[in-house]
Automatic annotation (TrEMBL):
This is Tc1-like transposase DDE domain-containing protein. One of its GO terms (molecular function) is nucleic acid binding. Residues 1-104 form the Tc1-like transposase DDE domain. It comes from Pogonophryne albipinna.
Length: 107
């Protein structure tokens, strides 16, 4: 989660992510991140059109939890704010050249 007030928790995924894992990450981290960032009621969640994000089970989970989800146009990475964060992370990794996972996680 990234917001205008800062980032939420960064989660290290150790294996290939599927829909169930994505929902578990949301379940464990979405509300705690929103609370830590002192987000007010009525905020809107945005994710891209990755299949695990648009899966029926994920949509149902978000609906049951009463999350407002922004409809996102397909094939529009240029509009996605997370792409800026990924670029910043790539630059930092290239500059610092971590030699192990611990060093990478500290970036």
């Amino acid at each position: 989660m990234i917001t205008r007030t800062g980032p939420g928790r960064l989660i290290r995924v150790k294996e290939r992510m599927n829909g169930a894992m994505y929902r578990e990450i949301l379940s464990d981290n979405l509300l705690p991140s929103a609370r830590a960032l002192k987000m007010k009621r009525g905020w809107v969640f945005q994710h891209d059109n990755d299949p695990k994000h648009t899966a029926r089970a994920t949509k149902e989970w978000l609906r049951k939890k009463h999350f407002k989800v922004l409809e996102w146009p397909s094939q529009s990475p240029d509009l996605n704010p997370i792409e800026n964060l990924w670029m910043e992370l790539k630059v930092r990794v290239a500059q610092q050249q971590p030699q192990n996972i611990t060093a990478l996680e500290e970036i």
